[in-house]
Amino acid sequence: MGRPRKVEVAPIELNINPTFKPLFMDELDMPRYYQLYGGRGSGKSFVAALAMVQLTYSKYEHKILYLRQTMASSDDSVVADIKAAIRLMNAEADFRESKGTITNITTGATISFKGIRSSGSATAKLKSLSGITTLVVEEAEEVESFEEFSKVDESIRIAGKPLKVILIYNPTSALQSWIHKEWFIDGRPMEGRSDTIYMHSTYLDNIDNLNPSVVKRYQDLQESNPTYYLNTIMAEWTLETAGRMYAGWGMYPELEQEGDTWYGLDFGYGGKDRTSMIKITWIDEVYYVEQMFSESKLSIRRTLTKMRECQIPFNAKIYADSAMPLLIDEIRRGGYRTVRKATKGNVEAGIKKVQDKDIVLIGDQSTHLFHAYMTFARDKNGKLPHEPDELAAMRYGINSKTPIKNAGKNKPVRARRRKGFL
Is 207:338 a contact under the CB 8 Å cutoff? Predict the structure, then answer.
């Protein structure tokens, strides 16, 4: 193709949020990561497309890769944004498209499009990543884990050229997001990340480029659906999870009052499964639930040790997962003679019974039980995922026993807890 030549691109007559300026810079000493997060109508994806097209004119002859969770979705809005940016820059003559790659024929720089997964759960074979200088992860919140992202991120390592890893997304649940875990604390950018530039934007930053009817729609949502407005339009991280199975629980730091008390026990069967024991105390029609322990890779001997450490009475009523009766027998031999098989039945039906109860969680937000309560939700297809072990243990206990009225007079002190948006 010959020696790349430097091409000057005429300025674009478009109001661009100054927040996005780092995307258009092309220096060796720039940070590696760019968090491009914002709400609907913020213009973040199209501005990124403009920046990537301009980057193809760089002296570094960049190889740009657009990545999404699935291959099929890479063939729609992302490619359309790149083509629209090329047209806006009056640069159609400089580009050719072939086999999913757009090439700047004046410099040899390329923009390609791939998916982490080809379809469903099948992992795509991401080949030819050598030489990539710029990774743009569109809808980064859809990437299932940090591990999947990291496999590609670690491939961006060519020497002697500026490297960019750009994540474009709308913030979701802080409790579930690997992005929040890696780059944020309580919904705010993590201090001390010198390798990262944070670029937050909303429709208010892009209002001159939006149809007035769209602006009015967003403004109306502030009144009609404030939760959606804050999370989806204003792009704030939230503690909530869409489609949660449980909501409305109270939360107390501790429970001093006595009532009818028993336990639910779910055994971990390897992998990430945890053996979980939940204490259930019933007072005045309210179920107070407390995590005793929840750990992975617990042997029966260690489970019995944990039960003794948590001072579970040997005569306690314990309703245990009956999938492996041998484990229940081992618990009995360990001194807990009153352990018995839990009433399990259909999971969905069992969850519905628990949903109808008045429940208060005892403890703080550091427990697996709290995290499970806040995040257990149906997937985007409406299917129920694997039930967290802590919630399974709680369900076994609540649905296996009819409480005995033994209410006390003194109410525990209610704890203050965060809820809603960070």
Answer: no
Give the DSSP H or E segment for 333.
Answer: helix 325-333
For residues 115-135, give the mean pLDDT: 69
Alpha carbons within 13 angstroms on the beta-carbon side of residue 130 total 1
Pairwise CA distance, residues 354 & 249, whole Å: 11
**Overall average pLDDT of the 193-213 stretch:** 92
Render 123-142 in DSSP notation, one character per residue. Answer: EP-----TT--EEEETTGGG
**Confidence (pLDDT) at 416:** 44
CA atoms of 344 and 325, how far apart (whole Å): 13
Residue 290: beta bridge partners? 279, 362
**Spatial CB neighbours of 64, under 8 Å, sequence gap ≥ 6:** 52, 55, 56, 109, 110, 111, 112, 132, 133, 134, 136
H or E segment and range at residue 374: helix 368-375
Q: How far apart are CA 17 and CA 14, in angstroms?
A: 10
What residues form DSSP beta bridges with 90?
A: none
Structure tokens at 318: 């314990």
Residue among 214, 208, 212 at smallest CA distance from 13:
208
Q: How far apart are CA 67 and CA 135, in angstroms?
A: 7
For residues 118 and 70, the answer to whether their CB atoms sit within 8 Å is yes
The pLDDT tens digits of the residues spanning 334-382 come to 999 999 999 888 898 899 999 989 999 999 988 999 999 988 988 877 8
Structure tokens at 177: 């997001």
CB 251, CB 59: distance < 8 Å? no
Please name the amino acid found at residue 248: G
* Residue 27 confidence (pLDDT) above 60: yes
Spatial CB neighbours of 377, under 8 Å, sequence gap ≥ 6: 241, 242, 243, 244, 245, 385
Q: Is it the case that residue 62 has pLDDT exceeding 80?
A: yes
Using DSSP bridges, classify how beta strands 250-252 and 358-362 pair: parallel, antiparallel or unpaired: parallel
CA distance 58 to 38: 27
The single-letter code of the amino acid at 381 is N
CA atoms within 13 A on the CB side of 277: 23
319: its two tokens: 């309703």
CA-to-CA distance for 134 and 68, rounded, in angstroms?
Answer: 14
